[in-house]
Each structure stands twice: as structure tokens, then as C-alpha cells.
Amino acid sequence: MSASDYAALTPGSLPARLGGLDLLTRRIGPAEGWQVEEVGDGNLNLVFILRGSLGAAIVKQALPYVRLVGESWPLPLKRSFFEYHALQRQAARDPGSVPELWHFDEAQALIVMEYLSPHIILRHGLIAGKRYGGLGERLGQFCARTLFRGSDLSMKAAEKKADLALFAGNIELCDITENLVFSDPYFEAALNRHTPGLEAAVARLRGDLALKVAAQHLKMAFTSQAETLLHGDLHTGSVMVSERDIRVIDPEFATYGPIGFDIGMLMANFLMACLAQPGHAESPGARSGYQSWLLSVTAAVWTSFEAEFTRLWREERQGILYQATLYEDQRHGLASEIARGERLGAIWRDALGFCGVEIHRRILGLAHNADFERIDDVALRAACEARALALGTALIHSRHTLSGTQALLDLAARVNTEDHL
Amino acid sequence: MSASDYAALTPGSLPARLGGLDLLTRRIGPAEGWQVEEVGDGNLNLVFILRGSLGAAIVKQALPYVRLVGESWPLPLKRSFFEYHALQRQAARDPGSVPELWHFDEAQALIVMEYLSPHIILRHGLIAGKRYGGLGERLGQFCARTLFRGSDLSMKAAEKKADLALFAGNIELCDITENLVFSDPYFEAALNRHTPGLEAAVARLRGDLALKVAAQHLKMAFTSQAETLLHGDLHTGSVMVSERDIRVIDPEFATYGPIGFDIGMLMANFLMACLAQPGHAESPGARSGYQSWLLSVTAAVWTSFEAEFTRLWREERQGILYQATLYEDQRHGLASEIARGERLGAIWRDALGFCGVEIHRRILGLAHNADFERIDDVALRAACEARALALGTALIHSRHTLSGTQALLDLAARVNTEDHL
Q1: Which end of chain A has less neighbouring CB within 10 Å, N or C?
Q2: Which residues of B are less than 8 Å from A164 in CB distance?
Q3: Residue B69 scores a pLDDT above 90
Q4: pLDDT over 80 at A421, yes or no
């Protein structure tokens, strides 16, 4: 099928175009009874909820441009192909972590999958002040399983190299990350915007030469450290939660990159959720307990990642790195544990750096997040954002020396009490 | 053409099979007058010198197995494809650094190229005690140009990702490096062999847990740090020299990897050449001045790499990393220089580590080098090799702290005076 066959779906056209899919009608009922609602609130794609007499489905279709910006910024449909392949791998590497995949149409750049209900986007829950049991633990586990099992620690070398080559084709979405995350925030790029009142904080940040150097070292790590298949965009808008279930969605930015990337991005989004809480508090201080909970979730992401990574290292290290042949089989199990500790140290340092740049770009770049955006009081929003910027800078500068999660929480708690405008 | 059309050339069959190539007959004369000699002394391939009435050519053909081992170790013909593509890129990135390419036949896995005369393999010259003006300088320059220009510092991101994907197909040759360089030397692998008398030194090395950890960190860097297109096997047997010319050959191990890899491997081979000299001396001490020269060449590889990398950083940094937009254009040229210094520091540390493992594997693994192998006196050979092993270990352990080339030379000079058996 050629690219010219592609046509964006509408609620009106959807039943006629997908009604012939047996797999879909068996699960949700015949097309005559379908109700279709377009619900996409992300930056890039169309998302439809499709309800039938027997059940519901999600239909996600890529648009040939960036939805947030419009047709002036074309973006290839092929991202849907990478999303589908990433979802497949995540489902295999951490069963139950992503929506069940029902159908993929490459030419139409559409994926049909399980409709998660009564799930909501995690970010919305965090703005509303909701708590979810085991949240950080589950997401840390997801990171460990997908990142360990997509790397040379686990895969056959030939399969890892084939996947590296496959996902190296996800050029345009990597380009977005490369520019929007790692470069734009650090100079007055055309697509940037920031809350009025942040001018002094922004000037300090953009005048910090060591920070600008570090951000580019991190960019080089992102473009060159092809350690594992990343989700690539693992923020709290890419997680769906209910009281009993946690799922990860939207891996269209998937690419091979550093193990610390997804973890750092996730921690950044919990830290931002925390620092944004004064803007959502019912009364001054009403969210301080909730802020502490968000800090504990941030820490749990790491501690859970570390624990599961350790378990996998000990039980599933079947790749070409740190082989048992060299260690355990030579009665040098201690060397294996030394190597694991040092490797986790390197991942931690990377994660702190990526955490810092993710915070910066969500406040200074193109793609902001609702945690801050939904604070109507502009002065209050700027005050919250300035604290987050300062924390991001601190994490980048201290990434080689910060000792662990408690030190990280101490920094965040401290910055939360200060004026960084 | 299918793989079954492949047939290994022989001196007898070569004129009939290549005599129809116009490009070749124009350059070296008609096939009727050709004289063919098989001269391959490497580990993997057939190499023919083809002499005609007008000139000469080299015909290099891959065999479907490892020549050093035999048909029991199959190796895909496709390595010839990667060698050809690597040679093309090296020729473009550092004109005049490789033999001129005349013809490539993918199905026959053969490359026809310029015959270099009166060049000899550099390693043979070093064993004979010959000096070549500007040797380290030229090779350092080659590393800087090919490694800088094959990276995200220089290339368009999409082209770099396409090349990363292309060379990710060079699976089997990477597998050789992954096993033979980074793992086998550190345990009693089946293919290993070493000089009698080294037993105590080998036991110390294989009992050094921190070393075994570091070697695997370096292996992970090799498999994951996809920074640039490497030569992949840049030892002194991959360099041809005359009094006036220096060329690099045999890049069939080409893959994306860490910038420091080629540099470290090259330095390792000069250091081994140096430490092997007592085995080639006409009388005791007769080669000590030559040893000093080899140390100066080792240092020159790095200083020349550093100087040329610096020039390219300042003049050709057109890739997506450390962009002028962020630095020079913001009057933050200082940040660009800080970044360059830190990046060179990281390359230096990597290079020292790779230097160490390359020394170890040439003495303990499958593929030894003539520098040591041609020392007939087994006890003397073992004494030289033990010093090299100790130096390799020292470089790996001190790679994060060793201050520069002088410190490196001091270690090598010191080890050369000691007994490390």
C-alpha cells in the first residue's frame, strides 16, 4: 500500500473503515452500534475511543504533522510503526505493562488496542492530588524489565544489533528530543516559551556555561549510548492509572539510548508534579503531605528500578556483557556484584542529568506540562517553575557526586521552601 | 546474484575471472600478461597481488570462514561489504589515507584496489627497527578526521543514524572483537594460548577482580557507545608504510563505537612494539633508542589526534552536538572550549582502557602479533610479554586518573625495566 492511501480517520469515517476487522467486531460488537469519540490531548496524534455493544477499543492514528504545531511541522507516519514495535517488545519484556495490542495497519499508521477503563492519565490524577498505591514501585519495575531485557545484558547480540538498526530509523522523533530537550531550553530558540516573571531565572540558566556544557554531554549520551530500547517519552502523561492498575502508553519516541534516560525523565515528572502542588492547593499548605508522597514516589522509582535490575542481573544476565563465564563460573561472583554496583552508579548519574534537562525543557521549551500550565495564577506558577528550574540545574551539576535518593529528596524539599525567581 | 555464485579466487583462476574489468585492464594492462601472487598473511582473507604490463593491483577476497582457524569457523562474506563501505568513508573523510578503490563485487566479496609500492606492513618495519617520519602524527590525524567526521559532531543526524544502522549489520566481526578482545583473555577460554612461562602473570591477571570488572565496562562501551564509525582493527598490521607515505588498510571490523577505541588499539600496538624490542635487539640494549622512539610515536598518536580533533571541533562542528548556536553565537565560545576539553578527557580515558585490553588479548587470546611471536627465545618472549601484560593492567586501572601522555610514557618506560613474570 502506498503512502497516498493514507487518510486521517474522523469519528464519522471510522466505523466504515474499521468495521470489517473481525478481531475488533468480535471484541466490541458490530460496527453498526459503534460510538466514536476523538479524545487525543497529546502533542502529536489522533486518538479515538470506540465503544460497541460488547466493549470498547482505542484507535490511535499518527498524523503526517505535529498536532501541537500544525501542518507547518511535518512528521512521518512511520512513527506509528516504531510505536507498534516498541509496544510489542514492552509487552513481551514486562507482561501487563502496556495496553493489549489488537491490530496494526502500517499504511494507515494506526494501532488498535485495548481501551483502559476506568483509567485516567496519571498526570491528571497527580494534579487532582490522588494517590496510587505502589506507583513508583511499579514504574521502576517497568523500567528495569524493559531496559534490562532490551540491552546487551540480556539479548542475543545479533538481535540487539538488529533492533538497534530498526529503531535507528526513528529519526524525526529523535530529532524532536535532540532539539527540544537538549538544546532549545539553553538558548532563545524560536519555539521556546516561558511564564512571565521567569526572566531572571532564565537569564541565569542560559548564562551558566557549565550547565550548557553538561546539557550537550547529556545530548551526546542520548544520541550515542545505544544501551537499550527506551520508551523515549516516559512522563506522567504516558502513564494510565486506575485504583488497581498502572499501564504505560505512547512509546512512539522509542529508540536505543542510555538506560538512565527513561528513569530520569520519569523522576523529573514526579519532581515537577511535586513542585507544582502549591499551585493546585485548596488552601496554602494543604498539599504539603501530598508533596511528601510525590517525593516518596520519585525515590521509589529508583529504588524499585535498582531492586528489579539487581534481580534480573542475578537471574537473567544471559547477554554478552558481564558473563557468568567470567565471574560466577570462576568463583568470582563478587566481581559480578562489583560490576552491578558500578553499572547502577553510572545509570544513576545519567538519570540525574536527564532528570535535570527534562525539567528545564518542560518549563522553557515548546512542550510544557499541565502540572504547571494549569496554575492560573501566573505569579504563583512562575514561583513554582523557578524552583523546578533551580532543582534541574542542581541535579545536572551534582550528578556525578549526589549520593542517592535521600540526597535527591533533600534537594527537592529544600528548593520547595525557597524563592528562586 | 545469489550467494551460491561465490567462488574463492586462485592465482590460476583470477585472470580469467577479472580480466574483463575494463577499469582494471586500463590501469594494469591486459589480462594475458598478468602475474598473480597470493600474499595474504592476515587472519581472515585471501589477498592477491596482480601485476600487469602497466601496473599492479591488490585483489582482496573474503573467505566464508576464518583463515586463521579454518572452515570450522564460518564467517560471512558480507564483511567485504562493510570493508568497502568503510574504505569509501575513510577516503572521503581523510583523503589519501587509504588505498584507492577500483572495484567492488559484493557477491564475490572482493575489492580491487591500488597496489601500494614500495610499502610494507608497518609491523614488519617496527620489528626490523625502522623509523618513519611523522608516523604517530599522521595516524593521530587519521583517527581525528575519520572519527570526528563519522560522528554526530559532524554528520547530519539522519545520515549518522543510517550509517549506524548499516554497520550494525557487521554482527559476526563485532562478535569476534566482543569475545576475543574483551572476554577471552580474562578466563581460560578454549581459543586462548600463551607463551610458556607466563603462568604466574596470567594467574594474577585472571584473579584481579577489579580488572575483570573494568574489562566488561569497556566491552559495554564498545557495544553501546555508538559515537562514530570505527576502523575497528587499527593495529600496526593494518598500516602500510613507505619512506614517504602512510596508508591504513583492512577496515572490515568497521562498526559504530567509542571514539577512543581506534586510538587505544593503535597506542597499544606501538607500546607492544616497544616492549618487544629486547627480543629483536642485535645485542642487549641495542634497541633502547628505538624503544624511546616508539614511545614518542605512541605519544604522538594522541597529541596529533588531540590537535586535529581540536581543529575540526573549531572549524567543522556542524552536527547536532555542542552547536555553535548554543555557544559561539551566544558569546559563550568558552563553553565550547570547556566542552571540547571534557570530551577529549573522556576519549583519553576510554582509549587507555581499550589500549589495556588490546595488549592483554594479543598475548593471552587467539590472535597474537608478530612483535612478540617472532621472538624465538621463549623465555625472553615471556619476559617481554609479562611487562606488556602489567602495563595493560596498569592502564586499565588508572584510566580515570592518568594525567596525560607523559604519565603514560613514564609507566611504559618503568615497566620496561622491571621483571613482571
Answers
A1: N
A2: 164-165, 168, 226
A3: no
A4: yes
Question: Which three cell numbers, joined as nine digits, stand for A124?
Answer: 491528571
**Distance to chain B for A184, nearest Cα, Å:** 9
Q: Which residues does A285 contact at the CB level (< 8 Å), separation at least 6? A: none
Burial class (CB in 10 A: 0-12, 13-18, 19+), A128: exposed
Task: Give B213 to chain A, closest Cα distance, Å.
Answer: 5
Do A217 and B327 lie within an 8 Å CB cutoff?
Answer: no
Is A157–B174 a contact, with Cβ atoms under 8 angstroms apart?
A: yes
Q: What is the pLDDT of residue A1?
A: 41
pLDDT in tens, A48-83: 999 999 999 999 999 999 888 888 889 999 999 999
Kindly determine whether residue B183 and residue A323, on different chains, have CB atoms separated by under 8 Å: yes
Nearest C-alpha in A relative to B228? A224
Nearest by CB: A342 against B152, B175, B217: B217
**Cell numbers of A243, please?**
485504583
Q: Does the pLDDT value for residue B349 go beyond 60?
A: yes
How far is B219 from A417, CA to CA, in rounded Å? Answer: 45
Instruction: Show residues of chain A in contact with B151, CB under 8 Å.
Output: 224
What are the residues whose beta carbons fall under 8 Å from the beta carbon of A413, sequence distance 6 or more? A295
Residue B71 three-state SS: strand
Which domains, from first to last, does chain A contain? 3-114 (3.30.200.20), 120-415 (3.90.1200.10)
Q: Which of B212, B227, B335 sits opposite A332 (nearest CB)?
A: B212
Q: What residue of B is the nearest CA neighbor of A174? A: B157
Nearest to B236 by CA among B344, B114, B370, B346: B370
Q: Nearest 5°: CA angle at A65, between A59 and A71? A: 130
Closest-CA residue of chain B to A322: B216
In A, which residues are within 8 Å of B183 by CB distance?
320, 323, 325-326
Q: Which residues of B touch A322 (CB under 8 A)?
A: 216, 220
| Contacts (Cβ under 8 Å, ≥6 apart) of B51 | B28, B34, B35, B36, B37, B115
Which residues have CB under 8 Å from A401's CB, separation 6+? none
CB B53, CB B29: distance < 8 Å: yes
Task: Sort A337 into a burial class: Cβ within 10 Å, 0-12 / 13-18 / 19+.
Answer: middle
Q: Which residues contact B287 (CB under 8 A, 6 or more apart)?
A: B129, B277, B278, B280, B281
Give the side-chain half-sphere CA count within 13 A for A157: 20
CB contact under 8 A, A169 and B161: yes
CA–CA gap between residue B28 and residue B406 (Å, rounded): 48
The strand pairing partners of B247, in sequence order, are B240
Q: Which residues, in sequence order, are bridge partners of residue A369? A: none
Chains A, B: CB pairs < 8 Å? 145
3-state helix, strand, coil in chain A (%, to 5): 55, 10, 35
**B374-386 pLDDT tens trace:** 999 999 999 999 9
Q: What residues in B contact A219, CB-CB < 8 Å?
A: 320-321
CA distance A65 to A176: 12
Query: For residue A202, what is its C-alpha cell?
Result: 532564565
Does pLDDT of A2 surpass 70? no
**A107 C-beta neighbours (distance < 10 Å), count:** 14
Q: What is the pLDDT of residues B111-134, one digit of tens each?
A: 999 999 999 999 999 999 999 999
All residues at 6 or more sequence positions from A234 whose CB lies less than 8 Å from its CB, including other chains: A143, A248, A262, A265, A266
CA B233 – CA B173 distance, rounded (Å) = 10
**What's the mean per-residue pLDDT of chain A?**
96
A61 forms bridges with which residues in the sheet?
A: A46, A110
Q: With CB atoms and an 8 Å threshold, state whether A216 touches B162.
A: no
